[in-house]
Amino acid sequence: MKNKLIITLLLLVSFLQAQEKKESYSFSLQQAIDHALQYNYSIINANRDIEAAKQKKWETTATGLPQISGSVGYLNNIDFTLQGVSGNAFNPAGNPDDISLFAFGTKQSMNSNLTLSQLLFDGSYIVALQASKTYLKFYENAKQKTNMEIREMVINAYGNVLLAEESVAILEKNKATLSKTLSDTQETFNNGLIEEENVEQLQITLSSINSNLSNVKRLLDIANKMLKFSLGIEVSSELKLTDKLDALTASNLDLSLTQNSFEVSQNINYQMASNFQEQRSLELKLQKSKALPSLGAAFNFGYNSFANEFDFANGDQKWNRFSNLGVSLNVPLFSSLGRSAKTQQAKIALDQAKTQLTQTEQQLKLEYERAKSDYDFSIEEYATSKSNLSLAERIEKKQEIKFREGLSSSFDFSEAQRQLYTSQQNYLQSMVNIINKKAALEKIVNKN
Question: What residues in the chain have per-residue pLDDT under 50?
Fold first, then answer.
């Protein structure tokens, strides 16, 4: 019995541990983008917007299709409504000043009917059908824009994590190297061969590295959570990045990207501005269509029955059939220039949309030139920072040798170290800049 209890407890503990185990992910940059384009929170709602727009489109379409409605009514005349007539209405010999009261109808009545209605012509309905397509296109464009923004967000977040990881690795390496140098220098000072200032200078540099290392580790944690948020996964889950910063940088060196001509019509912001202009054009058509007549038809069919007692469920109860067909024509004649004022407002709104489209076109051309320049500069900056890092490493190495041999001061050595650390960070940042600037340029030219 005791063994069974122990086994049960172990199984329970194992089950609870399995439930508490964090979900784990491993993504390359492209895999991260693909995952975000499916599970990012904004993407999910953008898909819902499209589905809602499709339903809205069908709602508009359905208003012009046959409509069927049914009704059932029951009336119980608890107290009849009396009607009054002159005293001689039915008796010419009677006193004309007398009033005779009587009631029409039966104590109870019931009726049921079906109505079939059909819109035959309405200019506003035709415009509404066109507008529903434009409405759907707007949300499809919005979804595409969201996709591009999420793609750029994931690229930036992915690069920031890699940058923080590389920074941590470099700082820890620098810390280990400097700690050994400080230990050797301390030993030399203890032997009375150098001044204490040399030890203190190295201690200041090491303290600065420790501070930067702690800060970068915190930034790495934040960058990881930002990336998880962009991917649409729990921030507490485990995430491993399989791409390396240098490999991503090499794959994003694409000089041909800036050589192609810019087709502004391919930009999603231009397409949305064009869609907005089309909406304003349809609004103008809608106002004009309200001056046209509308034609509709309806067919009614039903039964009614009358009784002084509630006998409607009896098989012998008489039910009377009725039916009718009606056609209605509505012709707008005069609105005191109200329709004309609305039409003019719609025309002004259309002119504004045209101006906004032109403004968007010119603005996008400027943004493209700026993004292209930023990408070209990031490539140049990368080459420069790579060369500067190589020089800084050689300078720092020479200063270290001189410092150990007593040919250089601790200040010169520390200055060479700071220069090296700055060059290291500039080099890492230049790699991230290439990735980010290319993503920004691809977003403008609508390249996935």
Answer: 13, 16, 18-20
Distance CA 409, CA 399 (A): 9
User: What is the DSSP pairing of strand 82-86 with strand 67-76?
Assistant: unpaired
User: How far apart (Å, rounded) are the C-alpha atoms in residues 422 and 381?
Assistant: 14
* Pick from 111, 108, 128: nearest CA to 62: 128
Do 422 and 212 touch, CB atoms closer than 8 A? Answer: no
Whole-number Å distance between alpha carbons of 410 and 398: 13
307 forms beta bridges with 108
> DSSP secondary structure string, 14-65?
HHHHHHHPPPEEEE-HHHHHHHHHHH-HHHHHHHHHHHHHHHHHHHHHHTTS
Strand-pair category, 99-103 with 82-86: antiparallel
Nearest to 40 by CA among 140, 141, 148: 148
Answer yes or no: are the C-beta atoms of 268 and 145 closer than 8 Å: yes
SS3 content of the chain, % helix, strand, coil (to 5): 65, 15, 20
- The pairing of strands 67-76 and 108-121 is antiparallel
Q: What is the pLDDT of residue 198?
A: 86
* Cα separations in angstroms, 178 against 198, 400, 421: 13, 10, 12
How far, in Å, CA of 244 to CA of 169, rounded? 13
DSSP E strands in 104-261: the ranges are 108-121, 238-241
In degrees, rounded to 5, the angle at the alpha carbon of residue 253 between the alpha carbons of residues 251 and 256 is 120
Helix, strand, or coil (residue 11): helix
Give the whole-angstrom CA distance, residue 431 versus residue 444: 21
pLDDT tens, position by position, 103-140: 777 888 999 999 999 999 999 999 999 999 999 999 99
Give one DSSP letter per residue of 217-267, joined into a string. Answer: HHHHHHHHHHHHHHHTS-TTSEEEE-S-HHHHHHHT--GGGGTSPP-GGGS
What would the two tokens of residue 266 be?
């391919």
Helix (H, G, I), strand (E, B) or coil at 117: strand
Q: Which two tokens stand for residue 414?
A: 């520390």
CA dihedral for 8, 11, 13, 16, sign (positive or negative): negative
For the record, the structure tokens of 218 come out as 């915190």
Are 286 and 148 spatial neighbours (Cβ–Cβ below 8 Å)? Answer: no
Q: Which residue has the tokens 């700055």?
A: 422
Q: In this structure, what DSSP letter does residue 78 have? A: S
What is the pLDDT at residue 18?
A: 45
Do 239 and 223 meet the contact criterion of CB atoms below 8 Å apart? Answer: no
Q: Which residues contact 277 (CB under 8 A, 6 or more apart)?
A: 350, 353, 354, 356, 357
Task: Determine the Cα–Cα distance for residues 150 and 156; give it in Å rounded to an integer.
Answer: 10
Q: Which residue from 359, 358, 340 is spatially nearest to 348, judged by alpha carbons?
A: 340
